Amino acid sequence: MMGSQPTGHGVEELARELSVGIKTIRRDLVMLQNAGFPLDEKRVEHGRKLWRLTAPAPAVPINWEEALSLYLARRFLAPLKGTLFWRSAESAIAKIHAGLNPSALRYLDRMLGVLHTTVPDSERYADKSTCLDNLTWAIEECRVTLLTYQSESSTEPVTREIHPYAWVFHRHATYLAAYATAHNEVRLYKADRMHDAHVTDLRFPRPSGFDVNQYLAGSFGVYRGNTLEPTTVRVHFAPAVSRYVTESQWHASQKLKPQRDGSLIAEFTLTATEEIQRWILSFGENAVVESPDKLVEEIRRTISQLAAAYGVDSAAFPVRRRKPR
Questions:
Q1: Does domain 128-211 have CATH number 3.30.70?
Q2: Domain ranges for the chain
Q3: What is the spatial distance between Cα 175 and Cα 151, in angstroms, rounded to a whole number?
Q4: Half-sphere exposure at residue 243, Cβ-oriented, CA atoms within 13 angstroms
Q5: Which is more confident, 81 or 281?
Q6: In CATH terms, is domain 231-316 a member of 3.30.70?
Q7: Contact at 8 Å (CB) between 111 and 177?
Q8: Residue 123 pLDDT level (bands cut at 50, 70, 90)
């Protein structure tokens, strides 16, 4: 559409045509300029600005195999329906669909019928699309943001100043890694608990040494713990589940040591054990923690509480701890 009028298009016109807000159009124009697209800005009467592409957007050739991969990748974005990420993927797929010939489209339809993902197809973030779009803009432009957020322990939302750094996707949930000025530290904010995000005109200097992968290196998911002291977690897996454990990379630090009896010793270096504790318990009696002692005791306590919840006397089923090898 940008190139359909030789004189260009105004922001209001683009917003009306694309059914989005004026703020979204202004942000997208800046993004396109920063990405190197040939955008021309022209000021006309009454200070009004018109925008147009001075050269056609480059055509990107794609075959049906590449299209199939992109269609499948879009399915993994299902939890982000209603957000900028999903809308952008839908737009790209629509363009690809329009450019494929009938035989390729028939093949695509057949193949999509035999592909299945367990990613939930929901619109959990549809009512938060503006909030998430604003935060994406704030990340790109290093803008100080006022985030209205209700933490798990809060009874009502609170507005706080943050410096948004990066998005984190974990187990079909979306988190924002941001510097919390009031706490003088980087924290994770779950998108489900966000109510509003007001992006200010103030900019913050993004730390050159910040890396979200390094930030979460000691987590068995997204929880980093309070001490940040690395701890080696050693788990003994029974033969019944050892093959299953070896088939996946559960953590970057993992070391797997097969045993002669078919069992497996797994070691992980972590700064927090809350998330790995839940993972270990999911294996039932087929996974026994050997160290650290603190985690062993935490699991003992959890088992006792679980037994009490089901009306079982946990004293009748003592937890046997394997001796470290």
A1: no
A2: 11-53, 64-112, 128-211, 231-316
A3: 12
A4: 2
A5: 281
A6: yes
A7: no
A8: confident
